[in-house]
Amino acid sequence: MFKIKHAFLILPVLLANPLHAESFGSCDLELHVSGFSPSTCTKSKLPLDHAGDVAGNVELAIRKFPVQDVDKRRGQIWLIHGGPGEPGAGFYPLIDVFREAFAGFDIIVPDHRGTGESTRLCEVEESIESEAGYAMANSEWGSCIGSLFTNSARTKAFTITNAAHDLAALIEQYREPGEVYVYAVSYGTQLTLRLMQVAEPKLDGIILDGLVPPESEPKWDLSYRTAIVDGVGRELLNNQRIERFQDLLSSDVQVWHDVLGSTDIRLFMAALLSFPDLRDRIPAIIDDLAVGQTRSLSETMIALNEAHKNLMLYPQSVPSLPLVMLISNSENNSRRGLTAEIVAEEAKDALFVSPLPGLLVNASAPLYDRDENFGRLPKRLPRTLIIHGSLDPNTPYEGAKVHAELLSQAGNVNFTTVIGGAHFLPMVAPECFIHVTSMFMSDVEVPEFCDSLSDN
């Protein structure tokens, strides 16, 4: 299966396999999607720490959507979600999109460690039986944080590198005849690139959607997210509207208060950037607020809440906030001394503000140190497609282009810009996503651009 010169790279992963891997069977939550046989599920036990320094195991949940027509089956596509903290259930509402993009492929959706139905950081507080189910109730945070510190060795094993070893082991355990591809979005692209560093599994290709910037470039890490969000938001506004919004923000009268309450309107406007149909309303909202009208703001707030609701259709859809806190602060924050005063100062002139820098202040978790893999590149990549929205507010477009240039040293890397695309292209630009990825899967040259703003 593997070339001899790669055998020693793969050996640790093979040795890390559990004593047994359960076969796919019935699921606790049944999902039926057109074009697929009923989904099946399994769980696999893997080491808590693949280096062997910390004892214990994690249990990882996987769901498979098998193709119905086995005669047209080509292989497997593994879907790796972002966050960190997003479970595989975040893909379920879009399985029809993936079915078109990856025709002929069984779709395999794992919950990486700490998310969904896999082992959680706070096992009691994040269990389905707890007060808020998989979510975190306010009353549960104290005991959750206490457990993170009490068993800090276990907490510090929930690293990107261990999650990458998990994924390598799962791909080998559940590999079936045919081609094997990996699709990843956002943080999932960081996890997949770490996978290609530490294990080099045999893959026919990878698709990176919303590629994270290079780890070696701290100017794009999470602590600077407000600058990234503000830049994207300002692209939507002409000079007149920028001045109009600035006047609104400097006014003593907050005309939006009756709709948003104490919420910073700049946070609200930034949230709209992730949904192109709502993003397009921003200029009109500013114009209405400038004349004291709040109807468009109110209607858009209702639509934003509905959009978020549609992403949380299943009990396990809730992201793991403890995992977000741990990995974001440990690996993707170059400024551990960040203070609330610094965050406020850097945001004072922004029109669009991200909540992430504020969440990095005084992290309530025992953080771990970046390991030797951080900031490095895979030595080899299979055929790779990077597809990225030009108006992505979460993973900066310029950072993705720089990263793509570096990755091209490791293999055949293709880059498609989705004009007007935001983050998570299967959701925000499904036509472009299906068009480009299906070409890639057919080994057809992909276009340099796809315009999500046109009618095609």
Automatic annotation (TrEMBL):
<keyword id="KW-0378">Hydrolase</keyword>
<dbReference type="InterPro" id="IPR051601">
    <property type="entry name" value="Serine_prot/Carboxylest_S33"/>
</dbReference>
<comment type="similarity">
    <text>Belongs to the peptidase S33 family.</text>
</comment>
<keyword id="KW-0732">Signal</keyword>
<dbReference type="InterPro" id="IPR029058">
    <property type="entry name" value="AB_hydrolase_fold"/>
</dbReference>
<dbReference type="InterPro" id="IPR000073">
    <property type="entry name" value="AB_hydrolase_1"/>
</dbReference>
<dbReference type="Pfam" id="PF00561">
    <property type="entry name" value="Abhydrolase_1"/>
</dbReference>
<protein>
    <submittedName>
        <fullName>Alpha/beta hydrolase</fullName>
    </submittedName>
</protein>
<dbReference type="GO" id="GO:0016787">
    <property type="term" value="F:hydrolase activity"/>
</dbReference>
<feature type="domain" description="AB hydrolase-1">
    <location>
        <begin position="79"/>
        <end position="221"/>
    </location>
</feature>
<feature type="signal peptide">
    <location>
        <begin position="1"/>
        <end position="21"/>
    </location>
</feature>
